[in-house]
């Protein structure tokens, strides 16, 4: 963290605490229903689907997936993004089967494509917040 981070930060809620504690340790944790054995994302208090249970475990992801879809943003949603180069917002289909939204970094934005293999990296944006982002697998 070289400078002050002025972009929006996630809202921390009790049901997302394990997820954010994991990212702080540079681990990507995915919630999984103990009833059905199915992983899901976004982190929430109840698993989706028919079981809708709070009997959830947090499983360490291997941190790899593929770009499922993406967009190139030339303009950010607020003044905090002013001066940023174009950046990628992507939906990543993780090898665990869940899809999560994040940024693809460390690549020319015009080289990103659907199906590109990516792996998680962690951006310590503040002393309290670490964001998972993705870069192409070499």
Write the layout of secondary structure elements.
Blueprint: H1 17-24, E1 29-33, E2 56-60, E3 64-73, E4 87-94, E5 99-104, E6 117-124, E7 130-136
Antiparallel strand pairs: 1-2, 3-4, 3-6, 4-5, 6-7
What does this structure look like?
The protein is mainly beta and 138 residues long. It is built from 1 helix and 7 strands. The protein has one helix spanning 17-24, and strands at 29-33, 56-60, 64-73, 87-94, 99-104, 117-124, 130-136. 17% of the residues are buried.
Distance between the termini: 25 Å
Record field, number of beta strands: 7
Strand content: 35-45%
CATH topology (fold) name: OB fold (Dihydrolipoamide Acetyltransferase, E2P)
The computed structural class is mainly beta
Enumerate how many helices there are, as a single number. Answer: 1
Radius of gyration: 16 Å
Please provide the ordered H/E string of secondary-structure elements: HEEEEEEE
Report the average pLDDT across residues.
93
Q: What topology, given as strand order, has the largest sheet?
A: 5-4-3-6-7
Percent range of helical residues: under 10%
CATH architecture: Beta Barrel
Spans of at least 5 consecutive residues with low confidence: none
Quick one: overall form? globular
* CATH level-1 class: Mainly Beta
Key traits:
138 residues, mainly beta, single chain, two-stranded antiparallel sheet, OB fold (Dihydrolipoamide Acetyltransferase, E2P)
């Amino acid at each position: 963290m070289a400078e002050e981070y002025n972009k929006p930060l996630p809202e921390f809620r009790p049901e997302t605490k394990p997820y954010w504690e994991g990212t702080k340790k540079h681990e990507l944790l995915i919630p999984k229903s103990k009833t059905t054995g199915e992983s899901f994302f976004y982190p929430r208090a109840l698993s989706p689907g028919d079981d809708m249970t709070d009997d959830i475990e947090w499983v360490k992801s291997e941190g790899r997936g593929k770009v499922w879809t993406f967009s190139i943003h030339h303009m950010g949603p607020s003044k905090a993004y002013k001066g940023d180069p174009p950046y990628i917002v992507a939906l990543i289909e993780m090898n665990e089967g869940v899809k999560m939204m994040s940024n693809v970094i460390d690549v020319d934005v015009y080289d990103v494509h659907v199906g590109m293999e990516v792996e998680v990296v962690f951006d310590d944006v503040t002393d309290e917040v670490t964001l998972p982002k993705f870069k192409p697998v070499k």
